[in-house]
Specification:
Layout (H helix, E strand, L loop, with lengths): L2 H23 L13 H11 L3 H14 L4 H13 L3 H14 L6 H16 L1
Length: about 120
């Protein structure tokens, strides 16, 4: 990637971080629905796509503080931890996703169940 491309990636990441911070700073009425996809989760996905898994894990974990069983955040935290080489954290999130996930239509859930089962078998 050329320097202009690197600059655009940095700008985009900074703008997404600002959006996530702004979203979290605003009060939400208890009768209105929450964000379909929280801005912080989008930031985490962006960091994951930029091969910055450690930073992505931190952002996914921030999402999970306010939405503890959010499917995409659990999957993102697990896959980011796996990409970062942190097997213990990956296993924790794969197990959590396998515990809270329902059905079998999502391939991520099937993968999480297999990885969680494999982690249990190794211990």
């Amino acid at each position: 990637m050329d320097l202009a491309g690197v600059g655009k990636v940095r700008e985009a990441t900074a703008a997404m971080r600002t959006a996530a911070d702004l979203e979290e700073s605003m009060d939400k009425s208890p009768v209105t629905p929450g964000a379909v996809v929280p801005a912080r989760e989008l930031l985490a996905q962006m960091l994951q796509e930029q091969a910055r898994p450690q930073e992505a894990i931190a952002e996914y974990e921030a999402v999970l503080k306010t939405a503890p069983n959010r499917f995409n955040a659990l999957w993102g935290a697990a896959s980011s931890a796996e990409a970062a080489g942190n097997a213990a954290v990956a296993s924790k999130y794969f197990r959590k996703l396998a515990d809270v996930g329902v059905g079998s239509e999502r391939p991520e859930l099937e993968t999480a169940r297999k990885k969680a089962a494999g982690a249990v078998a190794r211990n």
